[in-house]
Each structure stands twice: as C-alpha cells, then as structure tokens.
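Supplementary Methods, section 5.1.

A reviewer requested that the exact input to the structure prediction be made available. We therefore reproduce it here, unchanged from the version used in the analyses.
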Amino acid sequence: MASREGLVQRRAVGNSSDTPNAIQNKLSDDEDDSKREKAPKLTLLEEVILIGLKDKEGYTSFWNDNISSGLRGAILMELGFRGRITLDSLGMRKRSLLNRRVMLSNDAPCGDILLDEALRHIKETEPQETCQSWIELLSGETWNPLKLRYQIRNVRERIAKNLVEKGILTTEKQNFVVFDMTTHPLMDQAQKQQIIRKIQDTLLTRWVNDPQRIDKRALGLVYLAHASEVLEQAFSCLSDDDYDLAMKRVRELLDLDPDVEASKEGADEVFWGVVASFFK
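The structure derived from this sequence is encoded token-by-token as follows.
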C-alpha cells in the first residue's frame, strides 16, 4: 500500500540476512526520504493556487482579493518551515505575536524564486518588520512610497509557471473579448486531488484535538486556504455531514489563541505569527 503524505513506508529488516551493502542501501534510502520531506515537491504557495484554480479555465477567481495576501502569508510560513526566518526573542516583557519582528536566521537560498526574493527583502531591511507588516509589504499594500520596492509582483503567474515546469499545469491563450490572457489549465488531476485529500484527512479521518500534534504543513495549508478564501473548494465533494464536521473543526482552529499556541513547547513561532496576522 502506498505511503501517505509525509510518511515513509519502511521495509522489514531481517537480522541475519542483511549484508553490509543492503544495510547501506537502506540507510541511503532513509536519507533520501528525509531530504524529500525537508524539500517537498510543492510549496505551500503552489498548493494554495492549485486548490483555488479553476481546472479547465486555468485561472483563479477574478473576484478573490484575499488570495493575494494569503500567498504572501504562505511565503513567510514556508520560510519559517525551512529555517530561514524566526521571530525576535520575547525578552523580559511578553509581547503579542503581532508585535514581534521577523528575524533572518539563515540567508541560504531556498531554490525557489519567490521565496528567495522575499528572503532578500527580509535580509536587507532594517529595522525589521512584523509578520503582518511583511504580508502587507510583499502585497504592495503600503502608503510609504519608499517601501513599494518590497512588493513581489505577478505572484500567481510566477507560481503557475513553476507548476507548468513541474508538469502539473499547462499553458494556453484564452480570448476574453476585449483582451487575451495566458491561462494555465490543470494537467495532473491526481496531484490536486492529493492536496484536497490532505486537507480533508486533516480535518476528518486524521483529526486530533491538539494542533501541536497535527502535521504542521497540513495545518498551515488549512489556515492559508481559509485566509485565501479557497478552502470551500476542497470541501465540494464532501457529504453534508462531513462538510458540517469539517467546518466545525475549522472554526475550532480559528478560535485558538495563536499567542497561547506559540508559547507551548516545540511550537513554531513564525507559523503562529502568520496565523495571528490573518485571524487575530
């Protein structure tokens, strides 16, 4: 049986029949699996876009303004997962996540053009900004003309091109009467369904009533999809009962206090800082 997202299917290891070469090969396999977990095939940005994408038309809703800020939040969360950024220390006074600044912890390139562009901005900025401020700056939502240079432009189109290169989308030209537009219809339906199943499983079959025990990438995808107003599209095939249960659990997640969750042992402060920026 194929292994689930984020899990490594392990072979049974015999004590007497394993040769040194076999053991070395298994160690290499485990090392490769570990590398794949650290560098997932798709970024959170790409997963959010795929959820919101109209499969045949090849574009996201023209009326969805929230996906822009949701994708910038995904950039910060992804950089946090990859160990590139953290939040400044609390010091003697306890401060809300909304008041804590994003700090560079590792300036090594991620190998993704959008993540690396954001990383350069964070590295060059002094004094540093909060998670909420970075989401606004990367979206171009600022009245300060000196900070307009932080805006990351054409994010949806650049993500779509990444997905074309990965063989998940294709490229077409569509005529909209008064203008032509490049669109990116879905090619790999299985990849999108895997993402949708991950969200559904997180909220239904794999649900645990403790966010610290939920897979962080899956939990982050739920929060970001909701902030981007595309989460409903992951529930379209659910029965009425499953839909009601999934939405009930989404509301439970939204009711959590990010400051409390971030204070728990082993918590990812950047993760909860992004969540607080959208829902607190």
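Confidence is low (pLDDT under 50) at residues 1-18, 35-39. These observations are discussed further in the main text.
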